[in-house]
Design goal:
With about 450 residues, the protein is an all-alpha fold. Helices cover about 75% and strands about 0% of the residues. α11 runs antiparallel to α12. It is globular and about 80 Å long.
């Protein structure tokens, strides 16, 4: 069973590797954020009624910033021209409103370094102003030179924006010496060491600092989770030669975290992905079902479970069969799309899912087409297959990328539809579909046209 892109399970996508979001994203969630429902309209009304109450500005800013982060991470790289400009303008407008809200909080409640960190994030990621970010982070350092969040944010910024890798790592090493009980410094150092690796010794240092911290705090599952990630990253550093032993170490650590903390969603998700990579499909499925029992609307968990069920069906699908596991995969994907949750997935995840849906519909359609009494159902499934494939194709077209695997399978679906119409003696429609299949380089279709004297 082909993958259009590298399987999602092959390597974890770490947000810190993109633009050092990790330390900032979790930098500040005030206590009231968990207590008040995030109703944007109500919050805006409160600001109008009580313009001197800082908490209302804070609550609205927190809500809007979470949405902006999520939308930023889900940007579609296939967009071009006016669409790209429109999205950029929208991000800019929303970011400027956030700066205004946080400035109001700063005015009403001065000397909050967390505000400076958030404003630095917004200036850097959404407004493209690293100079303003630098200024804000330096202000934060002046106000709270010992604040762990400030030190981490500044180190992250130094690492990713200025490229001063050694300086950023040294900042964190010094912080660990000064504050040996602060786990966040250890986690951030290990994260940066294993994200942009210069030497394999970086992995060894990352594992060493985490192991030392765990000896002091064996109950600290966040340290154990980061150690698992370091093992995983090291195991996958050479995509042509995956280190299965390293994957095994990562798997054991992920399992230890989930045993100690059964509701740890990150550990369950990464356990599932690592288990799948090692071929332990049942363990992967079990972890994902546990995650979905905790978070029934978790879009990524549904997607990954669909992928696992699809992989379980691989051999049978290749034989033209449609087992129950394939039907379950198809159902999980369909639920995501019906609920609009596919928009929550990264574009690479969406395009692979659309391809998977096309494949599943095509296999089932071929089975249904073999019987006269199920011809109508076969037509429906072929049409669904073509629609799914074309959704994936549209993304590749916008990227100006030709994907031969996708093109070939889209041609197979058009060819299947054509043969179905031929059986029903609807030759004009049959020829149209098979001509389309031939234009997609489907050799069997081109041969059919030539054999039946339709100009190929």
């Amino acid at each position: 069973m082909p993958f259009l892109l590298k399987p999602r399970f092959s390597k974890l996508l770490v947000l810190a590797c993109l633009l050092s979001v990790s330390a900032w994203v979790s930098a500040w969630v005030p206590a009231w954020a968990a207590e008040i429902p995030p109703n944007e309209v109500a919050l805006r009304e409160k600001i109008i009624q009580f313009p001197k109450v800082a908490e209302h500005y804070e609550q609205l800013a927190q809500l809007l910033l979470e949405r902006l982060r999520a939308d930023w991470l889900r940007q579609d790289p296939s967009m071009r021209g006016a669409a790209t400009l429109s999205v950029a303008e929208d991000f800019n407008r929303r970011a400027r409103e956030l700066i205004y809200l946080l400035e109001k909080v700063k005015e009403l409640k001065p000397n909050q370094v967390e505000l400076l960190i958030q404003m630095a994030e917004i200036q850097y990621l959404f407004l493209g102003s690293p100079q303003e970010s630098t200024k804000l982070l330096k202000q934060a350092l002046e106000q709270a030179p010992q604040n762990p969040r400030v030190i981490i944010a500044y180190a992250d910024f130094t690492f990713f924006d200025t490229g001063k890798r050694a300086e950023a790592l040294d900042q964190l090493r010094k912080a660990i010496q000064t504050y040996p009980n602060e786990n966040d410094f250890v986690i951030t150092l290990a994260d940066l060491l294993s994200t942009a690796v210069v030497d394999v010794k970086d992995y060894a240092e990352a594992k060493a600092v985490l192991s030392q911290a765990l000896e002091k705090k064996p109950e600290a599952q966040n340290l154990r989770l980061m150690l698992a990630r370091v093992w995983l990253r090291e195991a996958n550093r050479n995509e042509l030669k995956i280190d299965k032993a390293g994957l095994g170490e990562a798997l054991k650590l992920f399992q230890a975290v989930t045993i100690a903390d059964p509701s740890n969603d990150a550990a369950l998700s990464e356990l599932a992905q690592t288990a799948q990579q090692l071929g332990e499909i049942e363990l992967a499925e079990s972890a994902l079902r546990q995650l979905l029992s905790l978070q029934p609307q978790n879009a990524l968990a549904k997607l990954l479970l669909g992928d696992v069920k699809l992989l379980q069906s691989g051999k049978e699908l290749d034989q033209g069969l449609y087992p129950a596991s394939a039907a379950e995969a198809d159902q999980l994907y369909a639920q995501l799309v019906a609920a609009g949750q596919d928009s929550q997935l990264a574009v690479t995840q969406r395009v692979q899912m659309y391809y998977n849906q096309g494949l599943l519909a095509m296999v089932e359609a071929a089975i249904l087409a073999a019987k006269t009494e199920t011809a109508a159902q076969a037509e429906k499934r072929y049409r669904e297959s073509i629609a799914h494939y074309e959704k994936a194709q549209m993304i590749f077209d916008n990227l100006n990328v030709l994907n031969p695997v996708l093109q070939k399978d889209l041609g197979r679906s058009y060819h299947g539809m054509g043969l179905l119409y031929q059986k029903s003696e609807r030759m004009a429609e049959a020829v149209g579909f098979i001509q389309t299949a031939c234009s997609l380089k489907h050799d069997e279709s081109c041969a059919w046209l030539k054999k039946n004297n339709y100009g190929r």
